[in-house]
Amino acid sequence: MRAGEHRHEWVRVGPPGSDRFQCACEPSSLFHDFISTTAADARQIAGPDFYTGCRTRRDRNTLELWLASAPAEVLTELEELHPGIYEIHNDAPTSEAGLFELMESLRAELSTLAAEGTRVVRVGPTHDGYLHVGVMGDVPTAQARLDALFGSDVAHVEYGEPIRHLPFPSGRAS
After folding, report:
1. Beta partners for 155?
2. Model pTM?
3. CB 3.0–4.6 Å: which of 94, 121, 126, 168 could bond 162 by disulfide?
4. Where residue 60 falls among pLDDT bands split at 50, 70, 90?
5. Mean of the per-residue pLDDT values for the chain?
6. Which residues form the domain of 64?
7. Chain-centre distance for alpha carbon 132
8. How many structural domains are present in the chain?
9. What backbone torsions phi and psi does residue 73 show, to the nearest 5 degrees?
10. What is the pLDDT, as a whole number, of residue 10?
11. What radius of gyration, in Å, describes the C-alpha atoms of the chain?
């Protein structure tokens, strides 16, 4: 991948409740500081009902932002605050807060799924509003089961091996 095609994955850094984001590949760049601020602004303006996630598009010096059916007022406020910076997708199936709720629901189903032959080994939200689930077992069966639990096209299932150093997420990060 060429340097201009690199896609940063931002993570929240700092003390609990911090609105600061960082990409490990460029923790001190001016671009990072600006995009970190615009990402925090997007999260605050959209709020938990609509904010889903974001990623930088360094090749275009923009922040690609996913929202879950945000009203026009939110979109206007974002564009007025940082004109031309956001590439907004307002079609995410679920907000970030909704994804964390689904993760907790999935946690309650783990023993049932295991008894049915599906061992969940990884789960987490994606920046574009989906629940990413890694399973050991039959992927199509697991996908059908999660579609029945959450509705179709919410969880994306793939085969995965256990990750020993990362536990199953237990709720919303602070």
Report:
1. 131
2. 0.71
3. 121
4. confident
5. 82
6. 3-89
7. 9
8. 2
9. -60, -40
10. 59
11. 17
